[in-house]
Amino acid sequence: MLNLSSLTLGAHARLITKRSISCCVKNHQKSADVPTTPQMHACEYEPEPYSGPSYEEILNIRSKNITPSKRAMYSKPMLLHQGKMQWLWDHEGNRYLDFFGGICTVGVGHCHPTVVESFTKQANKLWHTSNIFMHPNLHTYAEKLTATLPDELKVCFFTNSGSEANDIAMVMARLHTGAFDIISLRNSYHGASPYTVGLTAHGTWKHNVANGFGIHHVMNPDPYRGLWGGANCRDSLVQTDRSCECAEGQCQAGDNYLAQLEETLKHSCAPKIAAMFIEGIQGVGGTVQFPKNYVKGAYEMIRARGGVCISDEVQSGFGRIGSHMWAFQTHDVVPDIVVMAKSIGNGVAMGAVVTTQKLADSFARNVLHLNTYAGNPLATSAASAVLDVIEEEKLMENCTKVGGRMLKKLEKLRDEFSCVGDVRGKGLMIGVEMVVDKETRAPLPGDVMARMHDRTREMGLIIGRGSLVGNTFRIKPPMIVNDADVDFAVDVMRKAIYEYEETK
Fold first, then answer.
1. Closest Cα partner for 43 from 107, 116, 108, 94?
2. Are strands 182-185 and 275-279 parallel, antiparallel or unpaired?
3. Which of 466, 417, 26, 492 is nearest to 222 (CA)?
4. Complete DSSP assignment for 380-420
5. Separation CA 99–CA 485 (nearest Å)
6. What is the Cα–Cα distance from 477 to 103, expressed in whole angstroms?
7. E strands of 280-394, at which residues?
8. pLDDT tens-digit profile of 441-492?
9. How far is the CA of 232 from the CAs of 219, 228, 325, 411, in angstroms?
10. What is d(CA 169, CA 274) in angstroms, rounded to the nearest whole number?
């Protein structure tokens, strides 16, 4: 077993570049099939004309009254004013296919009529009382939400965001265990609040303020970019181009990453620890999936040291992966705490922590917890309607079907172009990692990614970017998208990639 405790950065880099891969680097040859600019398919909905301040006025207001730390996506920021299902319109009436869903938040479509009806009906009755009073929506939604989870997970704490939910989960774990050390993975994102920024292991989000006291970041078990990875590590229709000699049911890569977790536990932590946070699939980190045996093995190690296991489902939850409602279920584990937000309200500000009765009682003995807005009648009316839509419209089945189709089409782009390093994901949570070349896997530079990203927008497609240096396209559309949407999205991406490769 390789021990990395004394490995130098240079040696680390040499190990990465010497890894064997199953496929030779393919020098992209100029295709005879030169892609034309894709034509966007029809949409029956007719938006209202934009009637707000001009684009220039908005830019002026933004420069004077909005914090500059709020950075807009694209070199020319978009001014959006209306949305319907998978579509968005800007101030000039241009239509866009939304394959980012407001950062993986609009789960069932912009202004879905069922959610709008539920929200509007409640808005005409009662908006807010605070949860020191009882309201039926809070209680009926808690019952409906917990019915989607394993039997042990039955007690809800409602919040206004995923960061706040992770804050509560951290405090809950430390108070319950009486321990302080918490583990999270490098490349993870769990929020940017003063408390959760310590959990987050992306230098992009770190600031020159004290954070992360008692938090240890362990090696990320990334089958594509990490030290170890094989031909069948991921629960995905598309695997890495790396080879391995693992027998069926075994994963040497996962075992090696678990050994690194054990090293951290032995050398950096007290004998008893508080918790470990793991995203079902890493979101901001670039849709990174873990070796199939890693999460289960990690849970066993953490519980052996008295800690609790926390699944961050902020991006991967609510049916997006298709096969299951929650991504932790694909790892054959049951967490002690589940954290969720984003798609929970389809864009309405809301989050939740769901845990066991034992942990909830322990928390209540130590803390008087109150959140003024959490679980308010408006938010829970929208959230309840979201669950109805997921079930009634069979959106998990749609994620499996449409998402699987998109993964296989994107796999063909990986085989066609030298700069497409990896395609990964499950259901409609997909990542496409862009590289300088497939042998070194050096990330495609930020300026090149930005130009390519701009081109996809110019052709009418909205996708996101992620990973540590922003070289992964993040695809997380509303779960109602269809085959025609996928065809257009992949054609746009192929056109943008082709244009870049032709200029190399």
1. 94
2. parallel
3. 466
4. HHHHHHHHHHHHHTTHHHHHHHHHHHHHHHHHHHHHH-TTE
5. 9
6. 9
7. 308-312, 337-340, 351-355
8. 999 999 999 999 999 999 999 999 999 999 999 999 999 999 999 999 999 9
9. 20, 12, 23, 15
10. 11
Query: Which residue type sits at 200?
Result: T
DSSP-derived secondary structure letter, 293: T
Which residues is 282 bridged to in the sheet? 288
From 251, 208, 250, select the one nearest 226 (Cα to Cα). Answer: 251
Task: Determine contact, residues 441/414, Cβ cutoff 8 Å.
Answer: no
Task: Name the one residue in this structure whose structure tokens are 């295709």.
Answer: 31
Q: Which amino acid is at 443?
A: P
Please give the Cα distance from 255 to 311 (Å, whole number).
20
Largest Cα–Cα separation, the chain: 70
Find the length of the chain.
504
Each residue's pLDDT tens digit, 216-240: 999 999 999 999 998 899 999 999 9
Q: Which alpha helices (DSSP H) does 27-130 contain, by range?
A: 55-65, 101-104, 113-123
Tell me the pLDDT band of 22, cut-offs 50, 70 and 90. Answer: very low
pLDDT band at 370 (very low <50, low <70, confident <90, very high): confident
Give strand pairing partners of 277: 310
The sign of the CA dihedral 356, 359, 365, 368 is: negative
* Residue 131: CB atoms within 10 Å: 16
Task: Compute CA distances 402 → 163, 399, 421, whole Å.
Answer: 30, 5, 22
